[in-house]
Amino acid sequence: MKSLCNKAELCLKDIRNTLSHGYHYYFNNAFTGQYREQFISLVKTMLESKYEDVKKEGHKQVIARWLFNDLFETELQLGLESKNVESLLGYASVINQLLGDDTKGFDHSKLKAIFEILVNLENEDILKKMGRFFGQKFWSKKYSREFFEIYVHSKALNHNVYTVLHSIEESPTMAQFSDLIMIMIQNILKLKTQELMNNLDTDAITRVIQQLYDQAENDENEEILSYCLDMWDELLASNHSFIRNMTDKIETGLLT
Prior knowledge:
Layout: H1 2-13, H2 23-29, H3 36-47, H4 52-69, H5 73-82, H6 85-100, H7 108-118, H8 124-129, H9 136-139, H10 144-151, H11 161-170, H12 178-188, H13 193-199, H14 203-219, H15 222-237
Helix pairs in contact: 1-3, 3-4, 4-5, 4-6, 6-7, 11-14, 12-15, 14-15
């Protein structure tokens, strides 16, 4: 415990020490013991620092301590209401980490409330960042469907189409998400053609639908099979410029 005290003192002497290697260990263990107030003061000092990297780490601590220790609610709300990019990028970084790894010990419903705000902001840098969590660890979470349902209707989807589709492709089974994936593809097709071409490997939509179709065929799931065929009809009727480059896949794809 003395090491926590020493760490806090070092950081208060020179706030840049909060960026030193392994500092996360100290913060993760400092808010339930005798040095709690000292570290609360340290985080508040970080938020006022003249060093941008220190301030960003301070904002990361604000959302992390709110999720794990029920602290800094006022500071978190101020960051959200001010729409300060520095604070929002810090929040986005922590959310991406928690959704993309095996960390436990927090209330996912609290995380979801902040997640929904961030994926619908107007700031392009934050929207682009809010897609880095997609991977097998995200899809395997018991609450992943709740977050994905928000995401398929969000502004962040428009900036992360490639990432999401390829994450779906790389996941072994996505049957439980089939209805949401279909909605997602419909929303992707609502993008302006140039936006779509800039953000998409155009073959990815074909591959994802084919993947869902194959899984449904193996499971004898008539509802999802019907979804997939309906989606092909929508693709062909959408009149997007890239559709002409995809129609040859029908010869060897779903309709064979």
